[in-house]
Write a structure and sequence with these properties.
Number of domains: 1
Distance between the termini: 24 Å
Strand content: 25-35%
Order of helices and strands: HHHEHEHEEHEEEHEE
Shape: globular
């Protein structure tokens, strides 16, 4: 189940979050994801937030479904970008071999570590054979609530690799870096790409 305090934080800070995230062109990770999807392919923005990434996917000709547990984020995604966004928690994903790609960019880090194997299984089931998963997570250990009240699970790269392989994914690319989020603190992160 998605953490209620995390959802409330996003509901209360949705417009601030949108201002922080909004770009005028896709970054390299999103460009690589879009380019890896067949023309006119069907993708899911899982934990879409205010919808900026999903909008770039749609502009590139992809069919985009978008979900988020925050009703305010879903409202922004619809209002700002006209996305087909619905309020849904991760565990409610029930599609079967529907998507050519799933974009889970710093969204699944709000699920508990104990939930991750099941969620990756649902994502694998939702993807077509050989479809692509983009996964953004924070690097670290354990689980904790940060200063704004959001719940985070932290991972090591080899840990994520093992989880993906256990869920029948083939990891294909990894990059790491450091970014400053809404809380203002620098956090190390990983971007992992895998094939179903």
């Amino acid at each position: 189940m998605t953490d209620l305090e995390t959802i409330q934080t996003y509901d209360q800070t949705a417009e601030q979050y949108q201002n922080l995230l909004t770009r005028h062109k896709p970054d390299a990770d999103l460009t690589n994801f879009i380019n890896a999807i067949p023309a006119g392919g069907h993708v899911l923005d899982l934990g879409c937030g205010p919808g900026n990434s999903g909008a770039f996917m749609a502009q590139s000709g992809l069919i985009v479904d978008a979900t988020d547990a925050s009703s305010e984020m879903v409202a922004l995604a619809k209002k700002s970008y006209g996305l087909n966004a619905v309020q849904q928690e991760f565990h409610q994903l029930s599609a079967i071999k529907k998507y050519d790609g799933i974009w889970a960019n710093f969204s699944l880090l709000h699920a508990t570590k104990s939930e991750m194997p099941e969620l990756l299984g649902k994502i694998h089931t939702a993807l077509k054979p050989n479809a692509i998963l983009h996964l953004g997570l924070l690097i670290g250990t354990g689980e904790q609530r940060e200063s704004l009240g959001r719940f985070y699970a932290y991972y090591q790269t080899d840990e994520v690799n093992s989880l993906l392989v256990a869920a029948n994914f083939t990891p294909t690319h990894l990059r790491t870096g450091v970014s400053t989020g809404m809380s203002g603190t620098e956090k190390p992160f990983m971007i992992v790409t895998a094939r179903a």
